[in-house]
Design a protein that fits this description.
The protein is mainly α. The chain is 74% helix and 0% strand.
Length: 193
């Protein structure tokens, strides 16, 4: 046999190309941010034609959703006083949004792109549901209560960091904690209505 066993199969070449694109995208998004990163620059970094990026991921939004791995680093709520859960969770998300533009970018993409929406659903399922499960008084209500928390927190992010609605931007941290903390607390721990 001459060399045929050393030649990569189409599936292996495809996996290698996909991996190269994702690696280049992660580096480019981290260095330039979502808005300034371009498909052309990512393709150049991956040493491929830009059309290949589109072939694999469909759009910049799809590529971003596939490339960005978000660990929300959610706190262990079992270690907190029960009355501090909502305020702690709201504060944690405020810190995340203030320091991590990727989270805001994923929210933008999730609102307009199927791959981004799937990414947000995965974050909800894999990270927020387990946290709600720690403190929810009724295991059957965990998904609904976690969804209500997500609606509250993502609504804040949308109005404050994406749409930049002035009154939402003008609220200081303590006001946000005072308004949203009790609401998230109720969603997590209150008896069923």
């Amino acid at each position: 046999m001459t060399g045929s066993s050393t030649r990569p199969t189409p599936a292996r070449r495809s996996d290698a190309t996909r991996t190269a694109i994702l690696d280049a995208a992660r580096e480019r998004f981290a260095a330039d941010g979502y808005e300034r990163a371009t498909i052309r620059a990512i393709a150049k970094d991956a040493r491929i034609d830009p059309s290949m990026v589109m072939r694999y991921f469909g759009s910049k939004e799809g590529l971003f959703a596939a490339a960005v791995a978000l660990d929300l680093r959610l706190p262990d709520l079992t270690r907190l006083a029960r009355e501090d859960l909502g305020r702690t969770l709201v504060g944690h998300f405020l810190d995340l949004w203030e320091e991590n533009e990727e989270l805001t970018a994923v929210l933008r993409v999730g609102a307009t792109n199927e791959a981004g929406a799937e990414r947000m659903q995965g974050i909800f399922r894999d990270q927020l549901l387990p946290v709600a499960r720690q403190v929810c008084p009724d295991p059957e209500q965990v998904p609904a209560r976690a969804a209500l928390c997500a609606a509250q927190l993502l609504g804040l992010a949308l109005t404050r960091y994406v749409l930049r609605i002035p009154p939402a931007r003008e609220l200081v941290r303590e006001e946000l904690l005072a308004w949203l903390g009790p609401t998230v607390q109720r969603y997590l721990t209150a008896p069923s209505p």
